[in-house]
Amino acid sequence: MDHPASPDKPLSIHPDTLAIVDKARAEGLETVWDRAAAQEPQCGFCELGLSCRICVMGPCRIDPFGDSPQRGICGADAHIMVARNLARMIAAGAASHSDHGRDLVETLLAVSESRAPGYKIADAAKLDRLAAEFGVAAELAPLAKAKELALAMMEEYGIKKGYLTFTRRLPAARLEKWRTLGIEPRGIDWEVTEMMHRTHMGVDNDPVNLLVQALRVALSDGWGGSMIATEVSDILFGTPQPVASQVNLGVLKADQVNIILHGHSPLVSDTVAQAAQDPQLLARARELGAAGLNLVGLCCTGNEVLMRRGIPMAGNHLVQELALVTGAVEAMVVDYQCIMPSLGDLAACYHTKFYSTSPKAKFPGATHLPFSPENAQALGRQLVAQAVEDFARRRPERVLIPVTPVSQISGFSVEVIQTALGGTWDPLLNAIKAGQVRGAVGVVGCNNPKVVHDYGHTTLTRKLIEADILILDTGCAAVAHAKAGFKQLEAAALAGPGLRAVCQALGIPPVLHMGSCVDNTRIINLVAALAQALGVDLDQLPVAAAAPEWYSEKAATIASYAVACGIYTVLGVTPPVLGSSAVTDLLLNGLQGPLGATFAVEPDPAKAADLIINHVEAKRRALGLEAR
Ligand code: MSK
To answer: Which of 142, 246, 287, 527 has the most CB atoms less than 10 A away?
Structure first.
């Protein structure tokens, strides 16, 4: 474990988190940190990737030090075992994002067939652009165009195409590298299925061959499933624009009906947001003594509704249980991914109702109300109406909202950034060439109880902006940064003199929120656009990525597609690969030649910042730019 849990160590850098952990303990309630401590010591074989449950001749494990057999029962050595485990992790992450994207495409199809009353084409210009990209006839009426686009995107999941359409946004040099290595992604489902096949016992037993396919799977997520999720969400709900909002548990209101939107999809959350504007429901809330209806977000569903609607953010991954422990929540509505199965038990300790809404994701203790494009509008209203009635059941003496909210600016889509720059990338490229902005770094990913909550994100980012590096963020990292105040205009004062001047001139904070986990595709689109504008490949740019507190399989996939795109990526939590010197060496060194980028692992975020600053300056030097 990188950061052993300890009762003496602060769990979080945030006062809201610490105050509610104290409340949970006083009330005898268990949280993620208690369970992490109870798991100590964690399995050393698993930490090294040296345990295997792929077949039932096992489970097997390999002792890296002892005299015991150094192979699993099937004969797999440490390198095969570690590579298979990592490959399956990456396939699971790609499947998760891409299946999320599929739900958006199915809803777009339903809208085009007038079967989805809660939804509409919110960004017709984006529909036009994507339709052109996918070869859909420009003269079609909007709904017909949406239908053809949805059908074309469904083909991206299958095996009819030889490549994914969005990859054509990349410089030719990058595509050529992928072709040479054999990782140009084909159909999204094709890549995931092939990875699962190859990791079945007795199929692919070459660690390098396995991991090459894992990169291809990751790319099918980045330039396939995740990108589809982002782009179709923009069509249906609008491309984000800068929006002022707030963050931390203080966004819950003691005198209002509080509804939390948690998970990753914007589909149900948007219809809940629509229903929350219903004057009848608001009147009923007032009748029951509430001052209003208050929607707040958590994790990436929260990021989706924050980016487009300015709905405030209650917290990130490790705060999800604590939000219920405030005692102020009438309803927590979840879809899928990153939702702790413990939430039902916690909700039952209060008056809170816990609703699962995806047919794919049921939870203990949840009331299951499955979503479909056809029922979503009615479902949104049902959820809000029930939450309003449940306000009367709240026990005010159990409510603790320990802080006041922090303000933040969100909503930085690629389109917004380009418009702010006057429709061309030149001002940003000129600032980079002049050295005012040294480079740009995507700081993304989760929380993990192995790391002091949000310490990794904020320590790394503070040091990078001080070094005049612009930060692009998504996911739970984005919440950490907002809570630290990095997304206020005044945060420009925390930046080095060059970045500060650019932020002040453009009226932007030094940390730009680009959305949810699938919206990491906004970051790679931006990097690809900068590379195209400069006439170079992505690995030549002074850019990097970091996931200081990652936990999820999806984060492993994101990191893998970042590296495959040529973006140096620093992880703050060690992936389970150290049991194989061959796999570890491939990840840390072996990809530099074919892809121009590597992974690095550095648990200390201050040292991770130094690695990234050195990398950015080395890339500047190689481009012939002034370097420190
Ligand atoms: S929600 S994947 S904990 S960023 Fe996207 Fe946060 Fe990681 Fe889930």
So the answer is: 527
User: Tokens 């902006």 appear where?
Assistant: 465
Q: Are 560 and 218 in contact (CB under 8 A)?
A: yes
Report residues of the chain scoring pLDDT below 70. Answer: 1-8, 68-69
Q: What is the pLDDT of residue 8?
A: 60
Scan for tokens 């303000």, then name that residue.
407
Let me know if domain 243-398 sits in CATH 3.40.50.2030: yes
Q: How many CB atoms lie within 10 A of CB 323?
A: 25
Tell whether omega for the bond before 117 is within 30 degrees of 0, i.e. cis: no
**Helices and strands per DSSP (H, E), number in the chain:** 26, 16
Give the model's pLDDT for residue 256: 98
Question: What length is written for the chain?
Answer: 628
Q: Ligand 1 centroid vs 291 CA: distance in angstroms?
A: 32
CATH of domain 411-622: 3.40.50.2030
Distance CA 388, CA 439 (A): 48
Q: Sketch the domain layout of the chain as residue ranges.
A: 78-237, 243-398, 411-622
Ligand 1 centroid from CA 261, angstroms: 14
Q: Which of 340, 444, 446 to mutate to test the pocket of ligand 1 (most atoms within 8 A of CB)?
A: 446
Q: Do domains 78-237 and 243-398 have the same CATH topology?
A: no
- For the stretch 439-462, pLDDT in tens is 999 999 999 999 999 999 999 999
Query: Alpha-carbon distance 577 to 47, whole Å?
Result: 8
Phi, then psi, of 470 in degrees rounded to 5: -75, 135
- Of 586, 588, 608, residue with least CA distance to 598: 588
> Probe ligand 1: pick from 90, 317, 473, 550, max atoms within 8 Å of CB?
317
Q: Is the CB of 300 under 6 A from ligand 1?
A: yes
Give me the pLDDT at residue 391, please: 98
pLDDT of amino acid 69: 59
Q: How far is the CA of 551 from the centre of ligand 1 (A)?
A: 8
Rounded to the nearest whole angstrom, what is the distance from the C-alpha of residue 120 to the centroid of ligand 1? Answer: 27
CB atoms within 10 A of CB 425: 18
CA angle, residues 537, 539, 544, in degrees to nearest 5: 135
DSSP code at position 453:
B
Phi, psi dihedral angles at 279 (to 5 degrees): -60, -30
Q: What is the pLDDT of residue 6?
A: 47
User: pTM surpassing 0.85?
Assistant: yes
Q: Tell me how far apart the alpha carbons of residues 45 and 55 are, in angstroms, rounded to a whole number.
A: 17
With tokens 């079945």, the residue in question is 200
Whole-number pLDDT of residue 627: 83
Nearest CA-CA partner of 248 in 458, 448, 19, 403: 403
Identify the DSSP state of 530: H
Q: What is the DSSP letter of 587?
A: I
SS3 content of the chain, % helix, strand, coil (to 5): 50, 10, 35
CATH 1.20.1270.30 is the classification of domain 78-237: yes
Residues 6+ apart with CB under 8 A from 25: none
